[in-house]
Amino acid sequence: MIFTAGQIAGILEGELEGNPDIAVHKLAKIEEGEKGSLTFLSNPKYTPHIYTTKASITIVNKDFVPEHRLDTALIKVEDAYESFSKLLEYYDQVKSNKIGIENPSYISESATYGAGFYLGAFAYIGANTAVGNNVKIFPNAYVGDNVVLGDNVQVWPGAKICSESVIGDNCVIHSSAVVGSDGFGFAPNKNGEFTKIPQTGNVILEANVDVGTGTTIDRATLGSTILRRGVKLDNQIQIAHNVEIGEHTVIAAQTGIAGSTKIGKNCMIGGQVGIVGHIVIGDRVRIQAQSGVGRNVKDDEVLQGSPAIKYGDYNKSYVHFKNLPKLNKRINKLEKKKESE
Q: In the annotation, is 25 catalytic?
């Protein structure tokens, strides 16, 4: 896609200094900018690069005053970083704004879909599924029976949304994610074997939920696994059956949450965190990376360690246990001295 400096200035409501007809077709770092690229300057330490960049257009803050000659057109805005992010979002929307049904693909006769619909090649939509307006389902994606997709949902290549799932407006399901897979439910029988417990519930994602690549969200045994409005999941996360995650909670990669745990709103959970089942984690909780949580957690707690303890207690303890080899050496030395007396 090609944009002119004039078009970009209009999108960002910025002040253009340069030729409005200059065209760009790609984005670049300011130090790697070349002809036909767009870049930005927000961090002062990168200012020297603006005098050497070959980028055709550079977004800068309004208070930027060049000290030397520039070979790049300027678009001046209130906040260059924020405006560049806005432009990235706009670019992403334009890039993914496909419409129509590609072949080969499959849509059940009992499925319905709204205006602005896109279905990529080799994608599948099952029986009695209801798809909203401006939904984009990319190639090789699977949407099962009795699924509801709200408006502006994006299902990226290879993602799978299993039967009975309910996906709210503006949700994004990234490549290879699985929503509504069977919960991990088995019960031992008298022979010591494990028998499968049918997982008859579903998954509900409220509006504006992002599900990262390779993440799996299991359907409930009974009832629903629920991710509330604005939840953001990184890649390769496991959400087990009957878990509930509160509004605007964010979770980093490789975290695993066991069944029936309830997590509050506005929490931040680091990468590789393990959370046991059937506990309650409060609102605004912060859990540091690689922590293991095995107890209920109150509102506003900050945890670290495995098993996780309060963040301040962990740091105090770390002062001691990082010195254990030295302490052991001192004790051995004292014991030898005592024995020789």
A: no
Domains in the chain with CATH codes: 3-95 (3.40.1390.10), 100-315 (2.160.10.10)
Backbone phi, psi, residue 99, to 5°: -135, 140
CA gap 265, 45 in Å, rounded: 37
| Cα torsion angle, 103, 105, 107, 113, sign | negative
pLDDT score, position 77: 96
Give me the amino acid identity at 121: A
- So what's the pLDDT on residue 88? 86
- Report pTM: 0.81
Of 49, 68, 174, 241, which residue is the catalytic one?
241
Q: Residue 6: helix, strand or coil by DSSP?
A: helix
Max Cα distance, the chain (Å): 93
pLDDT the model gives residue 94: 76
To which residue do tokens 């050496």 refer? 329
CB atoms within 10 A of CB 33: 26
Give the integer Cα–Cα distance in Å for 210 and 247.
12
Is residue 286 classed as helix, strand or coil in its secondary structure? strand
Confidence of residue 295 (pLDDT cuts 50, 70, 90): very high
